[in-house]
């Protein structure tokens, strides 16, 4: 590898790694904000949270990687242009195409790695992320009695305390509603003070209450209202539901986001065949329903049930016969309409499920192609604007990334609603950005004046000198 190639790659890797992890961190914060309420107050261990964020990071790479390629390519060539290194290279006979060549190879290799990641790593990460998030969301809140607030974390009980001691165990003015035998507030316990602690085996929460009363409204008994005073009363609450338990991951493995490309192809073929089979069964069922009444009119008397009377035509029937035929026809029409509507809903549901599988099929490739397309937008744009750092490159990157992201999300939504095919919706962003990348690359490598800021400055300078500046001076004198 030549010195120039090493220098270009080294110049690119720094901004690329920096922007990638910054983008990933911002997306992680968005994820944390989205699921914050589902995780807070459940006493989750640090290890569980670290694993959750690690699995979530894998799913966020599809957004962070293209943005990092776009931003780092603009920064790299912007820095080279701002320091006049591109001018020096061109003066030495090195064209912009030659300067871009090592990074083109690097981005292609990065795209191949992105495909392998999307096809092999991402489905496994999604499986573990979804199953872990499911377990976290169904986890009960951690035991935390707050003064003046009713606590409902223990199944069958509602507990309120007025104050808690500094040791975390002493309780004051305890009020307990026991709903284990009824949903109504017929069993109430009040105590002046109490103490709470875990059992030795950690399976029960023990609450010792002092100087209190127990009220019970026993309907249907000889003594419907019972009140008992106590000096000390002990309650054992089972804590088996508070342990963090993992769900079997096999329950989620057939989800479309947990499949690789070959599995998605097989799943799409299977779902399509099932859909065709259901439609064929529908046509046969409707034809058979109509055939019963159609063939009855033309059948022989010996081949039909005794309840039917064979006639030559509808006009030859008496009024009762005509009425029975009309009623039967109306019932058949209503039944067929109901069946058809149900079948329509089922087919649409199956089409949406197939569409989601096809979306994941195309997503395996869109990430790789997006990296290449955005590089061919960022690199020439950086060479044109000749500005490095995190100022102008960030603004330009945000504009193009918004175009990429909004068009991708819009296309994906249209596919999910079965309004367009999967290949159209998932590749719409590529269709939009590829011509832009080709144009920018061509203009930058051919030193076109169309995208040179000095070209437009020369055009506007005479206008400012002859029109704008005299008007400005005249206006200032009038003031």
Gist of the model:
The protein has 479 residues and is an alpha+beta fold.
What class would the helix/strand composition place it in?
alpha+beta
User: How helix-rich are the residues, as a percent range?
Assistant: 55-70%
Mean pLDDT: 78
Largest sheet: 6 strands, antiparallel
Low-pLDDT stretches are 292-299, 303-311
State the shape.
Answer: flat
| Count of extended strands | 6
What is the count of distinct domains? 4
| Beta-strand percent range | 5-15%
Provide the gyration radius in Å.
36 Å
- Total helical elements: 10
The N- to C-terminal Cα distance equals 66 Å
Strand and helix order: HHHHEEEEEEHHHHHH
What is the quaternary state of this protein?
A: single chain
Descriptive terms for the model:
479 residues; alpha+beta; 6-stranded antiparallel beta sheet; 10 helices; flat
Note down, in words, how this protein is organized.
- Helix 5 packs antiparallel against helix 6 (319-385).
- The chain is flat and about 100 Å long.
- Strand 3 (170-178) and strand 4 form a beta hairpin.
- It has helices spanning 3-39, 46-82, 85-91, 96-138, 261-298, 319-385, 392-416, 422-426, 428-445, 453-478, and strands spanning 157-160, 163-164, 170-178, 187-198, 204-217, 225-238.
- Strands 1, 2, 3, 4, 5 and 6 form a six-stranded antiparallel beta sheet that branches.
- The model is unreliable at 292-299 and 303-311 (pLDDT under 50).
- It folds into four domains: 3-139 and 362-448, no CATH class; 157-242, no CATH class; 255-359; 449-479, no CATH class.
- With 479 residues, it is an alpha+beta fold.
